[in-house]
Structure formats: C-alpha cells, structure tokens
Amino acid sequence: MEKQNEVVVFGTWASAYCTRVEIALALKGIPYEYKEEDLTNKSESLLYYNPVHKKVPVLVHNGKSIAESLVILEYIDDCWKHAPKLLPEDPYLRAKLRFWANFYDQKFMASATQIIMSRGEERERAIKDFGEVLKVFEDGVKKDIPAEFPCFDGKNLGFLDIVVGTIACNYEAFHEAVAVIFSPETNPTFWSWVTALKNHPLMKEMLPPHDKLVAVMRQKYFQSA
Amino acid sequence: MAEVKLFRAWSSPFPLRIVWALEVKGIEYDMIYEDLSNKSSMLLQYNPVYKKVPVLLHKGKPISESLVILEYIEETWKSKTPSLLPGDPYQRAMARFWAKFGDDKILPLIWEAFIKQGKDQEEALIAAHENLKYLEVELRGKKFLGGETVGFADLTFGWLANLVSVFEEIAGVTLIDHEKFPLLLTWMKNFMDAPKIRETWPPRDKLINHFRALRETLIAKEPK
User: Fold this and answer.
1) For tag attachment on chain A, is the N or C end more exposed, with fewer CB atoms within 10 Å?
2) Is the C-alpha dihedral spanning A174, A177, A181, A182 positive or negative?
C-alpha cells in the first residue's frame, strides 16, 4: 500500500527549532503526524532517520528524512511550491534572508549561551555583548530588507519571521528563567517585530506554554548550578 | 570590467569555493585579493558584519558567507550549466545538509587536529574520524556527492582535496588514511581531476609555507 505525501515530524515540545518546522507545514496547509521525542531516551526511529546528529527536528516525507531546521524550511518551500512562499523569488533578497537567518542561529545563540553559562559581572558583560549582537542584527536587517522591515506584514510569516519568532517570542520565559536581555527601550524595532509575531495566531498556537518553558529552562540551564 | 567581483584571500578555502563555482559555470568575474592582516575599506564596507572573505559583488550589491553566495550564483545564473544543485527538492536538501555538516563538523575538527598537538590533537582526530565515517557512507555508489558532476556539497568539501595533504605534511600526521576512508580518498582524487578545480587552486608550496607559519604562530600562543 503506497502512502502518498506521508509527513512525519520528530520533535520536542520545548524546541524552537521543531516549532519552526511545524509552523512552516501549518502555513502551507500540509497535514503531518507529530512524534514527541524524549531526548534522554531517543527512539530507534529518530536514530534511524537522523544518524548523523541524532537530534530533533527531523522531517520524514514519504520515508525520506531531512534534518537541520533551516534545511527543512527550504525543503518545505521547494517541495510545496504553493503560497504562501516562505522565501521570495528575488535571489538577492533570498541571499539576505539566508544570511540573517544564519547570523541569528549562530551569533544570537552563542551570545545567549554565554549569558546562561555566566554569573555576576561576567553575565553583565555577556548581556552587554548580546545587546551589541542584537543591534547589529536590527540595523543589518533594516538595511538589507528595507521595504519589509519588520519582515512580518501582520499576515504572512516568512522565512526570517519563522526563524526569529520561534526563539525570540519566548523571551518572557528566558527573562524569567535567566535574565532580562532586551526591552522596548533598548531595542524598540526588534521589540515591535517580536510583539507583532507573538500575536500571530499560528505563533500563539504553536509556541510552548510559558510556565512549562520556564520550568524546563530552569532545569536545563541550571542543572550544574 | 565584469559585473561580478569576488573579494578573496589567496590561501582561504572559502572564497576558493566561489572561484570554482564561477569558473565551472563560465561566469566572468574580476578577482580582488585581500590582505587579511590589512583589510581594505571596500571589504569592510561590503561585509561590515563579519569583515571576512569571500564577498561577491554583483552589480554593486554585496553578498557574503560562502554557502549563501553559492545559492545566489545558482539562482541568479539559472541558465548557466552545470547546475550546482539538483532539481529534486529532496536531493537539494541533502546537498544543503551535507554542506552544513562539512562546515559545522568536519572542517573545524580537521583544523583542530592540524593546529593542536599531543592529546588535544588525538582527541580532535578521533572526533574528525567519527564524523568522516558518515561522509564515507554517503559516498557509496557515488562519484561525487552531486552525482555524476561536481555539485554544491562537493564544492563545500573541496578544501579536503587540496588542504589535507598540506596539513598532513606540515603536522606530520595522517589525517585521512586510505584504510578507513577509501571512498573519501577516491572522491578527493575525482574532485581534483574535475574541470577547473586543480588549475584554479593555490600553488602547493605557497600553501605549505603559509600554513606552516600559521600553525607555528598558533602553537606559540597556546597556554603552556
């Protein structure tokens, strides 16, 4: 019996990278089966479908697996070409969006990790560094994608909205579990973008519940404390 | 004057990927060599975020980050063959996955194994081999990662073909041995023999001098 367009997502509820995949599929109206993984006891299927990294998210489409959230997002856009498009047609704009998505995933996360791992004065410095990374991001996105900044037009979520929103929209949980790292005063443009994203119905539906996320963050980040 | 300019440093493997892509697709370009110890104001203007090479300038608009540039080239010059990425979405995703894997895992670990010594080097090499095993499996039944011709992922791993033997000679250690990685070594040879590849890469003796000096500097900086 052939299964046409069978889509399975392996994920964990607290992972923003997994939320990215679910949001993209929901935007495109693609039905899928979701499998929650326990990362302390990974399933045989996960290890089979992602032997290289053994991580979530993994998308399995008709038995073929793809890992790495940004690769998966592009796959979803390539495979299901109908609207809404996650990336625009113009190659230069695509290049800018890819550039900033990579910057976000590499620089922001490294900077946030520094904050999590440090205490006292070192943490103050790490928060300051984060502020600088955020400034570079804000100014850069404004300059490179001027007509569409904030990228989110209130209706359609695009590639960068998904990449940024799934992580940034959880800022309240991070602020409660770790430290306050930005505010409407320090970063008004970013703040208004994230606030708009938080109000999108799909984000509201897909983002993990605040209290649960705070608890998980506290446990994960301060296990060794 | 070509409408495409490429900022590069002669020894860096990242801009070399772009050279290969442009050459293979027959796209005219001007090369601008940067001295990374004395970066030009143009480079800093065109890549203010990372201040690195490569930067591709197309009709005055800059693009940085080598994998982003490769995608841009592929999308902008659609009619120029060969294609670097296949048409099939799954194969495209696999090319992107392996390229990312190479840059995130293989390159940093091989680099670590090259610049470190003693136990640190041993550990880096073990980790590199653990990851290279996946590449070895992926190469089964394939001439190139892209199929019959060099593609996106092959260009990303291309540094293995010209730099591994340079690193091995300088550090006096085997990084990729033929018993454990026969398919990878075959791939390296096929890649080297592909059109436009070897003729555009930097001369070996220059690379040896450059990376030997760099390694010595880095080792000297290590805390005792």
Assistant:
1) N
2) positive
DSSP for A18-46 reads HHHHHHHHHHHT---EEEE--TTS--HHH
Cα–Cα distances (Å) from A56 to A15, A65, B23, B147, in that order, read: 8, 11, 37, 28
Q: How many CB pairs under 8 A join A and B?
A: 61
Q: CA-to-CA distance for B36 and B71, rounded, in angstroms?
A: 25
Report yes or no: A23 and A162 within 8 Å, Cβ to Cβ.
yes
* DSSP strands (E only) in chain B: 4-8, 30-33, 55-58, 61-64
Q: Which helix (H) or strand (E) holds B187?
A: helix B182-193
Which pLDDT tens digit goes with each residue over A4-47? 689 999 999 999 999 999 999 999 999 999 999 999 999 999 99
Number of H-type helices and E-type strands within chain A: 11, 4
Measured between alpha carbons, how far is A67 from A54 in angstroms, rounded to an integer? 9
Tell me the ipTM for this assembly.
0.96
Distance from CA of B72 to the nearest CA of A (A): 6
Alpha-carbon separation of residue B153 from B21, B94, B146 (angstroms): 11, 9, 7
Q: Does A66 touch chain B (CB under 8 A)?
A: yes
Let me know how long chain B is.
Answer: 224
In order, the DSSP letters of B92-119 are HHHHHHHHHHIIIIIHHHHHHHHH--HH
Give the span between the Cα atoms of B86 and B93, in whole angstroms.
9
Tell me the average pLDDT across A180-206. Answer: 91
Are B139 and B132 spatial neighbours (Cβ–Cβ below 8 Å)? no
What pTM value is reported for the model?
0.95
Nearest CB to B92 within list A78, A91, A95: A78
